[in-house]
Write a sequence for this structure.
């Protein structure tokens, strides 16, 4: 006797039908949703997917005058040049180190700041703190780095604080802490905003119920607040992992110097120094493509882990 | 309100102290910028940027005069305000719609669509194809080139989608039973529940438009249409020492301005944001009662 | 039958008159759209008839940008248009943004008729632009349409060699610096007031400088005797050892040399390391950039440096007692010795013009730009408008008026010059700068002295010549040098800082050889050989 599967709901039925039938059914069922998202899909098609053919520049010897389709095809040569640099592993190591350290320090500090502000009893003071802490975000990087250089030179304030008398940025091992700490200083306030917003949407009733059950504030934070903002934190974390290879040159350029290339030089600054930013498109395009592939791999990994652990996935 | 435990009282005190320290180290750079901007340029150069400033070095409006002397600064504000006024609503509306649809679990191809959209965050054609693409749509030279191609930021869209996902399904079902269309559900029911996130996104988009100059450099060719940041950037470069490899015939304060003008431009660019921010802030600091959601 | 013959005759007549009409238009050359009266038999005179307009791309010089928004507003531009009879339509991005704008222009194919840019920094150079169909080869028309510039080349064969390409073609219209004063706009400068305190004479050799530095350190422990970026220190002290002030130079046997492989360079670095360990070099020098050095000097924290900003330092310290920064010549090792392999060239460091393939009126463009090299053009573009910006004195020479030097509206000399003198804003016309324009423009004695002292070097053996590498050579060279330069810079700074012991020098040199420096040298040598064969 053939076993018949109990059919409950459309899911099981759909599994048995071919793809196009499923798709058609989905569209007819949810036509209103598909309609309203259509312009957005068109937007992505036009402004993001259409120019993607430009990625072939990475495989050409591109000259603007010849155009993208007219330039000579060179296959993987640009990549070979790129991987063949004496400094490839140093650059890769530094890029990853600086990016990951930044990421891993930014997250807890921003979340912590948001929670602390949230815990303040005086709402007015909370607003003042919040307003003031985001201000450094708006100061241009040049000025912030100028300040950092001043504070860490041979007789700078911070240098003296640590009892040293040589410029801190001559020491390759100090580059990373200086970079990350100054980054946090500048960005923690701004970065905490999204967490503050997430905190406000946690249901107040949960807190009230916990109070009644006798849980103190600390316990409330652990069992209500943190889980409450977990989706936001996870999503942001996964997306930011995807920016790890794209570490920009701006800040490194302003803070580094020849003596600490070993620990401070990253892909973006190496490419910049090559002086090719605007004349050797093929090379920078190849580097960009490489970065994108790694970034995507990192995101997929992070997302898979998140899906297993948290059942949270960004797609 | 029950009485606070000893532990909680201590915590509160430390919290306040710590955050007060945070205020001090966060506000100092901004104060420095203000002091430097109002300093006499030559006096500022003379003290060499070495010391902590607690007040302007000398007092002079020379740096600000240099900034506002440039007639394009007013058109700069104008262009940027136009971009904000038109761009941010477009950004928010489209981001909301996209995020909402992608948060609806009943869509079978939800994952596929999300992937398609996320992919664009990591792969891009590069500056030249993007430029040519925008040009092919006839947007080159228009301020719309700064608005339309950037209508949706994927990062923000995902944030918004997460917010929508947090809203209980029961609401949507109840509304559907009442016969509401998707758009009604979105705007009448969902939006009020995610106000904090919307506020944050308005802030993100607004600040993005306010600070951006690179796209304007590519697409805008008439100085009258340059947005604010591009004008300011030009100003700094014009006054900087980097490009002069010859002796100058200075003696005029103009030459001294290269340092302090950087600070004046920051003040000019940031004051409007500082002024506008408190209006948005109340939407995402705790204190707004998010209405209890009951069946 | 009769009709047919008639038709045939008519056809014949038509054909003959058609052919006659065609050959009658023999003056039309492929790229010149001007009517015939401006070329060949008739004697040519300006203005060029026909009211032509050409398009122009080039950066807007900052001295102009500070005061107005277009070159077209300047009286001197209007005069130039009037005299040549041609108008330009300007596309002028701000200084600092022209690189991106240029690439957009090239990518989109919207070349303007005239494009002014630092083409030598464009990968592959002018030859690449020619091969890619961006610019035109104007060699064949030089004699006919640019007689003034051709004469200039004939009178200055060394300049001619700089401008031509390796196949002796002319691909551009140059902007030229003439005279030692224009070639020497930077150099060592120091605090004269502090020197007086030491009681020592202005130092001429490295040893003398060392003695001065030691004394300064004694008297003022907080002031850094020698400050500047790593490059500044190189330009100050490296030439004394006969190895130029940068990585590449061509010695007096026309052989290419790479500084790091030379013994003289090792001596230079050794000495700098010694100075650094004794506190004679600013301990923060590695972290400096141009702006920071200016701050250091202006705030009195530095004694001597290398550069062109002494005016800024003095201006910031106008009411600061005896503070005065003056210039000194680049020191040699022995007294009276002039440094070699450092002097610049007349051509190449300033942006210059090319004529694009989109230009259909090449004769007009060339003749317009040739005017600058005629006696009248030379005078006008270097000095301005007679009676307004300059007058001629009894000695027959031009002198600026007070409108420029002491402007009644309070404009600085640089700003006033921007309205009248294209030699100062380096465009939009291409011209040969008159040395006296700069000498005149610097009114203070210490500035004129600066030009003289900084100009006191060897001109027979200059810095690395403006060679051209082919496209393939460029890719290979750039790839090699990206790593080699990184290595050289980081090692040299570390040697000076003492982070790397000098005993490792041989390893350093060996690593360079392993990085295939020889190949880079060979590429450069080939280019230099081609250069001298021009």
């Amino acid at each position: 006797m053939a076993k018949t599967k109990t059919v409950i709901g459309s899911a099981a039925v759909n599994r048995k039908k071919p793809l196009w039938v499923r798709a058609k059914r989905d569209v007819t069922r949810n036509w209103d949703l598909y309609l309203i998202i259509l312009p957005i899909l068109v937007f992505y098609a036009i402004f993001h997917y259409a120019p993607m053919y430009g990625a072939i520049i990475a495989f050409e010897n591109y000259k603007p005058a010849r155009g993208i389709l007219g330039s000579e095809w060179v296959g993987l040569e640009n990549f070979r040049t790129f991987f063949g640099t004496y400094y490839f592993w140093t650059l890769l190591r530094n890029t990853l180190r600086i990016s990951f350290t930044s990421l891993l320090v930014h997250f807890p500090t921003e979340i912590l700041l948001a929670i602390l502000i949230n815990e303040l009893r005086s709402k007015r003071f909370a607003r003042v703190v919040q307003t003031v802490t985001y201000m450094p975000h708006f100061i241009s990087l040049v000025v912030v780095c100028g300040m950092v250089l001043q504070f860490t030179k041979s007789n700078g304030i911070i240098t003296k604080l640590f009892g040293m008398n040589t410029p801190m940025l001559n020491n390759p091992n100090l580059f990373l802490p200086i970079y990350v700490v100054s980054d946090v200083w500048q960005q923690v306030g701004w970065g905490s905003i999204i967490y503050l917003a997430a905190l406000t949407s946690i249901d107040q009733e949960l807190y009230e119920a916990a109070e009644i059950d006798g849980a103190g504030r600390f316990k409330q934070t652990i069992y209500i607040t943190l889980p409450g903002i977990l989706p936001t934190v996870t999503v942001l974390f996964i997306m930011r992992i995807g920016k790890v290879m794209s570490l920009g040159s701006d800040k490194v350029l302003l803070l580094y110097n020849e003596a600490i290339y070993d620990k401070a030089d990253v892909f973006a600054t190496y490419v910049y120094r090559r002086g090719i930013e605007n004349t050797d498109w093929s090379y920078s395009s190849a580097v960009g493509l490489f970065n994108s592939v790694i970034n995507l791999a990192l995101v997929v990994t992070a997302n898979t882990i998140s899906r297993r652990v948290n059942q949270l996935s960004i797609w | 309100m029950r009485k606070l435990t000893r532990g909680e009282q201590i915590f509160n005190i430390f919290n306040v102290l710590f955050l007060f320290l945070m205020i001090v180290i966060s506000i100092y750079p901004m104060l420095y910028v203000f002091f430097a901007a109002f300093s006499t340029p030559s006096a500022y150069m003379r003290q060499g940027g070495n010391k902590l400033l607690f007040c302007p070095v000398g007092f002079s409006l020379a740096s600000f005069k240099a900034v506002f002397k440039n007639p394009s600064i007013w058109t700069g504000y104008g262009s940027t305000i136009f971009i904000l006024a038109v761009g941010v609503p477009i950004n928010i509306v489209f981001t909301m719609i996209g995020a909402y649809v992608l948060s609806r679990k009943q869509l079978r191809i939800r994952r596929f669509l999300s992937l398609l959209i996320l992919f664009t965050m990591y792969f891009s054609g590069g500056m030249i194809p993007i430029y040519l693409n925008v040009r092919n749509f006839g947007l080159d030279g228009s301020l719309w080139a700064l608005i339309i191609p950037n209508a949706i930021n994927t990062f923000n869209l995902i944030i918004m989608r997460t917010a929508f996902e947090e809203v209980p399904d029961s609401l949507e079902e109840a509304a559907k039973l009442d016969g509401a269309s998707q758009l009604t559900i979105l705007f009448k029911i969902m939006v009020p529940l995610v106000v904090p996130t919307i506020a944050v996104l308005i802030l993100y988009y607004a600040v993005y438009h306010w600070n951006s100059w690179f796209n304007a450099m590519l697409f805008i060719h008439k100085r009258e249409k340059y947005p604010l940041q591009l004008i300011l950037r030009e100003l700094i470069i014009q006054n900087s020492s980097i490009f002069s490899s010859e002796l100058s015939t200075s003696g005029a304060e103009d030459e001294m301005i290269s340092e302090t003008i950087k600070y004046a431009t920051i003040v000019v660019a940031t004051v409007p944001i500082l002024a506008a921010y408190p209006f948005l802030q109340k939407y995402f600091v705790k204190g707004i009662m998010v209405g209890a959601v009951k069946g | 039958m009769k009709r047919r013959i008639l038709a045939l005759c008519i056809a014949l007549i038509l054909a003959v008159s058609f052919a006659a009409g065609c050959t009658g238009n023999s003056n039309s050359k492929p790229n010149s759209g001007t009517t015939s009266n401006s070329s060949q038999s008739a004697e040519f005179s300006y203005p060029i008839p026909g009211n032509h307009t050409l398009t122009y791309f080039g950066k807007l010089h900052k001295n102009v940008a500070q005061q107005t928004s277009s070159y077209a507003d300047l009286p001197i531009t209007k005069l130039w248009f009037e005299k040549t009879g041609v108008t330009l339509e300007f596309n002028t991005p701000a200084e600092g943004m022209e690189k991106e704008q240029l690439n957009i222009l090239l990518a989109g194919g919207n070349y303007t008729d005239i494009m002014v840019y630092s083409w030598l920094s464009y990968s592959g150079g002018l030859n690449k632009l020619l091969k890619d169909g961006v610019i035109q080869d104007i060699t064949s028309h030089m004699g006919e349409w640019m007689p003034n510039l051709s004469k200039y080349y004939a009178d200055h064969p060394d300049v001619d060699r700089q401008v031509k390409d390796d196949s002796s073609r002319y691909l551009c219209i140059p902007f030229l610096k003439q005279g030692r004063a224009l070639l020497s706009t930077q150099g060592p400068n120091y605090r004269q007031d502090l020197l007086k305190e030491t009681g020592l004479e202005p130092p001429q050799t490295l040893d003398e400088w060392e003695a001065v530095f030691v004394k300064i350190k004694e008297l003022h422990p907080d002031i850094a005797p020698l400050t500047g970026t790593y490059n500044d220190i190189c330009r100050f002290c490296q030439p004394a050892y006969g190895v130029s002030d940068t990585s590449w130079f061509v010695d007096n046997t026309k052989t290419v040399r790479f500084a790091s492989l030379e013994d003289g360079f090792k001596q230079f670095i050794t000495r700098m390391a010694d100075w650094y360990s004794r506190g004679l070099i600013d301990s923060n020098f590695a972290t400096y950039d141009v702006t920071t050095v200016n701050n250091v000097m202006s705030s009195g924290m530095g004694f001597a440096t290398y550069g062109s900003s002494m005016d800024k330092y003095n201006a910031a310290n106008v009411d600061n007692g005896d503070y005065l920064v003056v210039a000194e010549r680049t020191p040699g090792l022995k007294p009276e010795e002039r440094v070699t392999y450092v002097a610049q060239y007349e051509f190449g460091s300033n942006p210059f013009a090319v004529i694009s393939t989109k230009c259909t009126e090449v004769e007009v463009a060339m003749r317009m730009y040739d005017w600058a090299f005629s006696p009248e053009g030379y005078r006008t573009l270097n000095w301005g408008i007679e009676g307004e910006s300059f007058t001629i004195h009894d000695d027959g020479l031009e002198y600026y008026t007070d409108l420029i030097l002491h402007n009644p509206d309070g404009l600085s000399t640089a700003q006033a010059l921007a309205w009248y003198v294209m030699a100062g804003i380096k465009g939009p016309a291409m011209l040969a700068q008159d040395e006296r324009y700069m000498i005149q423009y610097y009114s203070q004695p210490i500035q004129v002295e600066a030009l003289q002292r900084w100009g006191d070097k060897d001109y027979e053996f200059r810095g690395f010549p403006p060679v051209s590498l082919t496209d393939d050579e460029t890719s290979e060279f750039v790839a090699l040098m990206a790593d080699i330069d990184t290595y050289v810079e980081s090692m040299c700074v570390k040697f000076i800082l003492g982070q790397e012991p000098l005993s490792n020098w041989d390893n350093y040199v060996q690593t360079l050889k392993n990085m295939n420096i020889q190949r880079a040298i060979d590429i450069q040598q080939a280019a230099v050989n081609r250069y001298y064969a021009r």
Remarks:
- The domain at 185-342+469-534 of chain C is CATH 3.40.190.10 (D-Maltodextrin-Binding Protein; domain 2).
- The radius of gyration of chain C is 28 Å.
